[in-house]
Design a protein that fits this description.
It is a single chain. The protein has 144 residues and is of the alpha+beta class. The chain folds into two domains: 46 residues, no CATH class; 93 residues, no CATH class. The chain contains three helices and eight strands; from the N terminus they run αβαβββββββα. The protein has a two-stranded antiparallel sheet with strand order 1-8. Strands 2-7 form a two-stranded antiparallel sheet. Strand 4 and strand 5 form a beta hairpin. The longest helix has 14 residues. The chain starts with a helix and ends with a helix.
Length: 144
Amino acid sequence: MYLERFIKDSAPQLEEFGRYAIILKDVDEFTKRITRAVKKQGYQATCGPVSYRDLKLNGGPAKTGHHVTIKEGLLHDISDLHLKRDAFIKMSKYSYQNEWRVALCRGTKDTSACSLKIGNIRDIAYCVERDKLIDSIEMLFQTR
């Protein structure tokens, strides 16, 4: 089964997420609850899956890391530099994460953590231990 192979192949990386996982039984209802909470708090938001891409520089692969390469002797004015950071794009090396994100716009340039209270979701989701993830997902697909 593809799903079981995927989870077993991803097991080492899954450990970085912690001991538990949340399985959503109704993504549409989850999205509706997020939307209601966002409106209630006066924010704006967008939700969706993350896209994973290889980084490119001048058409070729780019080195990853926190660095900039410039040519010696050139003057660089970075006062007008505007970096575009898309909340839904990550490097392909993280594709095993298969993330689904919520990006909030709070009307400020604040990037600190923010809690969004959407209420109890036990009717549309359940928590499982990471070690029981395969069995839980298979059970979910059998009941559909």
